[in-house]
Amino acid sequence: MLLTTYTVNSLGDNNVGTGNTGDLRYVINRANELNTGTPSTPDVIQFSGVTLTPGNHTIFVGGGAAGAVPLPALTAVATVDGTTAGGVDNLAGLMLTLDGRHLGGEANGLTLEGGNAIIMALEIVNFPGNGILIHSSNNVIGGDEVGYDANNQRNNPTGRITTLPRPDPATTSPVYVRPPQGNVISGNGRHGVLVENGANNNLFQGNFIGTDISGTKARGNGGDGVVIKNSDNNKLYGTTPPDQDNPFVFYNVISGNKGNGLVVDDSDSTIIYANFFGLGADNRTPVGNRLNGVLIKGNSDGTRFGLNIPLGNVASANGLNGVEVRDTASRTLLMNTFGGIAAFNPSAQVGNQGNGILITTNGGGKYFGSSEFSTIILTSQLSGNHLNGVEISGNAAAVQVSQSVIGMQTNGATAQPNLKNGIEISGRASNIALGGFEPSVLGGSEFPEGEEPFFEAANLISGNRWNGISISQHVSNVTIINSFIGTDISGSNPAGNGRNGIYIVGSSGNQIGSPLNGPTPGNGVTHLDRNIIAFNAHDGVQVNRATGNSIIGNSIYQNGRLGIHLIGCGIWNPPAPRLVSAQIASNGTTQVRGTLIGRPRTTYLVEVFADPSAKPGNGKISLGTTQVTTDARGHAQFKITGLVDPQPRAAGFISATVTGPTGTTSMFSRPIRAQRIG
User: Could you say which of 54, 498, 553, 655 has the lowest number of CB atoms within 10 Å?
Assistant: First the structure.
């Protein structure tokens, strides 16, 4: 089938024309009447009948003989192509403009009801409603400016992907944003873009939404930048595959809006790749959205926020949080998110006023594959925020944070602190995992042969102003494994948190390191559950008024006060064992004797540590564990032989902890000097 071409020959709005030629209102009505376009051969509305000049390029919608009424909704399958107007000069900023200043109420700029439309190279400004309202599916919004009337205010010319060459990778930084390749959607009375009522499979690409054409100054929409409500399978792409393998992509900039940058509400399978939410197009200037950068809410399922670099998102400089996930939103993947920090640009101070990421969703009982998780934060950097890097609170459940850097710059060596905690877990949050071995639930990827999973998957939670991790209130079942807390990315150099490495108050039943009844280290072999908790200003782990918190198999050393500090934990706090003697042979084989006092006829787990320092509260190297059962008086003597110190000449002192059957771990025993034999 041949497409039908409709030609706009006037900048007036009088609903006047003949055949397939007339002003825009007439042509839209004509296209709707004939309705000959199909998805494979859409009709074309072209503007070849008008010639634009700097002082004459605007259609004042509602300002002509047709009266102050909005344009009719487009029900035809058609491409509206502003590049066909005479005199168009993208680089000079001369584009066909639709101006809605004569309209009242909540009139929208363009309304798409037929589906499969393509909107290109239009500037849509001064409409009291939304810049574009979409009530249909399979539309593409690309190559147009929408919202900000930039006459006499242009800072940079508009560029399009067909008019500017790709940057040279040899001379361009890893994050490169040039003038908008899609839309400038700014200054509208309500939202920049509203997608609702089952409008599925729409694509938005290369947009500046809420900024001026430079992408560095706010020209916010009155509501949110983009709202997707009750609509599935929509995509916001900063680049299109296969260009995802090219690091020099053209991000969407969704910043400066008076509400949120993006809202996903009761919508499934939304894909959001390569965007700035709250940061300017220069990857440096804060242009925050007044509320959240991104809000995922309702029962939205299967949101994919980011993918492999360069398809991550930046959510920084916003008035509330970088990203908030709430209600019963499920199976949300937040991957390669820069929250509170610019992408690979440590000099920018662009923290969110709230948290980098706020999670309060209970997950709705839906999980990734066979895993136990419904919200996963993966390979993200969450630093420089005014509250926490991550807050998991309310009734949040089934959340995993893995392979992320929290409180440090991208290099993992320099602090960029969150002003409160690295991770705060509070309220009634439950079933939370911090750390992991590999993202197996996201496709079963395997590590290269010979690569240590511990270093591959570790979290780095260091440099934060308060605690590395704070757990409080009615929180339960938090597992912390495989994380560096207070060190740099090497796990060896200081980058301490300003208070404690881990702070627990009033929360019971949590696991730090190995499970009480699971695999534990032995014979000096480093196991994959361990955390390194070192160089923090106060305690390595501080537990207040809580029981059942196990601390097993970790490397805890050189914290400002104690390695493990139990405060107000009552009779359920087991006393540390008393070590009597320790001998280390030249080959590292260790023998330790000691006693403990506990409840009668009760089995305890004793863990032995080696450390080069005589300071109480250190346990750098876990030598292993053994089970010890008390007699009828609650007394026990123990002798542990065969433990292997992997660094026998560096570890001159031996200490121990004991963990009771309820899972409460004691403080470190007083260290004793190891006697070297052989």
Answer: 54
